[in-house]
C-alpha cells in the first residue's frame, strides 16, 4: 500500500542518513578533543611566567623572538648532517685511517648451523653452560666447538676498528666546530661573563641569528645520533645514551620555546668542551699512539670533572635555580627546565664514577682496565685452553668513556 511504501522509504532514508550523522559527530568530537589538547599544550602558564603572554613575544620594534615552529628546522638539519657524516667518513676519515695503518682484525667466520643461529638471534648471544650442553646435544657438536661458534658469531656483529675510528673522527670534528662556533657566538655577550645577565629582561629577549644556528645544529646533531643509534658502535650503556639524547632534545626544545636561549647556549658550550678531548683521545688510541692517548685520557678526565661535576651543577644549575627568582615567581617551566638539568646531572655522576674508577686503575696500576661498558672483541680460535676476552690497553678509557660523557 502507499502507506507501507512511504514507511519503508523513510526507514531506508534514515538508515542511509544515520552513518553520515554519526561520522560528522565523530569528526566534531575529535576536533574538539584536539583543540582542547592544543589549548592545554600551549597554555601560557606552562611556558611563561605570570603577567607574560604569547602576545608579548610577537616580533615587533626590530625585536625577533624564537618560535616553536622553527624547531621543525632541526629535522632537515639532522638529515643533512647524516649525509655530511657519510661523506666525511668515506672520503676523509677512511683514507686517514688507512694512512695511519689502522686495519680491521681478520675474523674467522662462524660455520653455518641453523640450530645455533636460531638460538643466537632469538634467545641469547652468550649462552649459559647448561644451554651450551643442551645445544651440544642437539647439534652433535662438542661443547668447545659450540662455544667457539658463539664467540665467532658475536665477533661478526662487532664493528671493526676502522668503523670506530671513522665514528670518533666525525664526532671530534663536529664537537670542535660546535664548540668554536659557540665561543664565537658568546664571547662578546655580557651573560658569558656574568650569569645574572642571563635573566635580564627575561623572557622578552630578542633572538640573535647566531643563537638560531647554534641551536639548530646542536639539535640536528643529537637527532641524527638518535637516528643512527642502530648503526653506530653499540655500548653497554646504550639505554643511558638514548635517555641522554632524548633528555637533551627535550631540554633544548623547551628552552627554545620558553626563550631560555641564553642559558641553553651556555649549557651546550660546557658539554661540548670535554667531548673534543674524549674523541681526540680515541683517535690516538686507534692509531696506537698509546702515550699520547694516555695523556689525552688524563686531560679528558680533568676537563670532564671540571665542566660536568663543578661548572654545570654549581654555576649553570645554580643560575637556573636561584637567579630567576629575582625576576619572576616560579612556574611550571621553571621546575621542568631544572628537572631536565638534574636528569643530565645524574647521568654525569654515573659516567664520572666509571671514569674515576678507570683513572684510579691507571694511576696506581700504570695501565687502564678494559672498558666496563665496551663490547670487546673475543679470541675466536678453537684452542682447548680457556679463552678470555682480551682487554686492550686503552679501550677502557678512550674507546669506551665516550658514552659516559658523550656530548652530553
From TrEMBL:
<comment type="pathway">
    <text>Sphingolipid metabolism.</text>
</comment>
<dbReference type="Pfam" id="PF03798">
    <property type="entry name" value="TRAM_LAG1_CLN8"/>
</dbReference>
<feature type="DNA-binding region" description="Homeobox">
    <location>
        <begin position="101"/>
        <end position="161"/>
    </location>
</feature>
<keyword id="KW-0256">Endoplasmic reticulum</keyword>
<dbReference type="InterPro" id="IPR016439">
    <property type="entry name" value="Lag1/Lac1-like"/>
</dbReference>
<comment type="pathway">
    <text>Lipid metabolism; sphingolipid metabolism.</text>
</comment>
<feature type="transmembrane region" description="Helical">
    <location>
        <begin position="335"/>
        <end position="356"/>
    </location>
</feature>
<feature type="domain" description="Homeobox">
    <location>
        <begin position="99"/>
        <end position="160"/>
    </location>
</feature>
<dbReference type="Pfam" id="PF00046">
    <property type="entry name" value="Homeodomain"/>
</dbReference>
<keyword id="KW-0371">Homeobox</keyword>
<feature type="transmembrane region" description="Helical">
    <location>
        <begin position="168"/>
        <end position="187"/>
    </location>
</feature>
<keyword id="KW-0808">Transferase</keyword>
<feature type="compositionally biased region" description="Low complexity">
    <location>
        <begin position="395"/>
        <end position="408"/>
    </location>
</feature>
<keyword id="KW-0238">DNA-binding</keyword>
<feature type="domain" description="TLC">
    <location>
        <begin position="163"/>
        <end position="364"/>
    </location>
</feature>
<protein>
    <submittedName>
        <fullName>Uncharacterized protein</fullName>
    </submittedName>
</protein>
<feature type="region of interest" description="Disordered">
    <location>
        <begin position="373"/>
        <end position="408"/>
    </location>
</feature>
<keyword id="KW-1133">Transmembrane helix</keyword>
<keyword id="KW-0443">Lipid metabolism</keyword>
<keyword id="KW-0812">Transmembrane</keyword>
<keyword id="KW-0472">Membrane</keyword>
<feature type="transmembrane region" description="Helical">
    <location>
        <begin position="295"/>
        <end position="315"/>
    </location>
</feature>
<feature type="transmembrane region" description="Helical">
    <location>
        <begin position="212"/>
        <end position="231"/>
    </location>
</feature>
<dbReference type="InterPro" id="IPR009057">
    <property type="entry name" value="Homeodomain-like_sf"/>
</dbReference>
<dbReference type="InterPro" id="IPR006634">
    <property type="entry name" value="TLC-dom"/>
</dbReference>
<dbReference type="InterPro" id="IPR001356">
    <property type="entry name" value="HD"/>
</dbReference>
<keyword id="KW-0539">Nucleus</keyword>
